[in-house]
Amino acid sequence: MAELDLLGSILSAMERPPGLGDQETRRRAREQAARLKKLQEQEKRQKVEFRKRMEKDVSDFIQDSAQTKKKFQPMNKLERSILHDVVEVAGLTSFSFGDDEESRYVMIFKKEFAPSDEELEAYRCGEEWDPQRAEEKRRLKELAQREAEQEALRGPAVVNPNTDYKDKYSHLIGKEAAKDAAHTMQANKAYGCVPVANKRDTRSIEEAMNEIRAKKRLRQSEDEGPGGAGTS
């Protein structure tokens, strides 16, 4: 009996044969793995074919002496990476341009015709590169810079009127007054200051009132003198 109990426990611990459900799951897993392997092989084959095509395009570009640069159609990230690698192996220069992923493309250049910063900036802005136009813009920029430097060396501009306003309006203020004003203005220019005499009355109110009272008393005394006394 004990031996039968031991055999029964061993049999119950052994893995049971898979049911119909488990067999279907395994079949689907095998099919999925087969499809994945096929896709991987297909992708690998496409990469190899694309690289061979890019190698041929780059080789034709190198052999064509009339071409200094070549623009390719928009590519995805993987294709651009393959092309950049082919260009680097060939000893050329390449750049990617375009704002979004769908329109991003690659341009390749021969080493002796590597693009300048101005040319790269034009491509980044979506513009066509025009060497003559760029040279004209560079020349105008240098000219403007030289003019600005010369203007800075000259210093601030000094305005010198053709005529003195005192001479222009002498018929209104009088020739003598115009001469005195002109003389005063020349003195002010020479010494860089305004004389006290040219300023407004600097007396205090009390001093001005005392002077007025003194003048008034003087007039009264003159009126009351021998020649100015009235009859009774």
- Structural class computed from helices and strand pairing: mainly alpha
Tell me the number of strands: 3
Annotation field: number of helices:
9
Low-confidence stretches: 228-232
Strand order of the largest sheet: 1-3-2
* Beginning-to-end CA distance, first to last residue: 179 Å
Q: Architecture of the domain at 28-129 in CATH?
A: 2-Layer Sandwich
Q: What is the multimeric organization of the chains shown?
A: single chain
Largest sheet: 3 strands, antiparallel
CATH class of the domain at 28-129: Alpha Beta
- Which sequence of SSEs, written as H and E, runs from N to C? HHEHEEHHHHHH
Region (Disordered): 1-51, 212-232
Protein name: Sperm-associated antigen 7 homolog
GO molecular function: nucleic acid binding
Pfam family, one: R3H
Please tag this protein with its features.
3-stranded antiparallel beta sheet, mainly alpha, elongated, Ribosomal Protein S8, Chain: A, domain 1, disordered C terminus, 232 residues
Question: How would you describe this protein?
Answer:
The chain has 232 residues and is mostly helical. Among the domains are: 28-129, Ribosomal Protein S8, Chain: A, domain 1, CATH 3.30.1370.50; 165-222, no CATH class. The chain is built from 9 helices and 3 strands. The chain has helices spanning 2-13, 20-63, 77-90, 117-124, 131-154, 165-168, 170-173, 175-191, 205-223, and strands spanning 69-71, 93-97, 105-109. It has a 3-stranded antiparallel sheet with strand order 1-3-2, with helices on one face. It is elongated, with a radius of gyration of 52 Å. The termini are far apart. Residues 48-111 form the R3H domain. This is Sperm-associated antigen 7 homolog. InterPro entries: R3H_dom, R3H_dom_sf, R3H_sperm-antigen, SPAG7. Residues 1-51, 212-232 are annotated as: Disordered. Residues 23-51 have a biased composition (Basic and acidic residues).
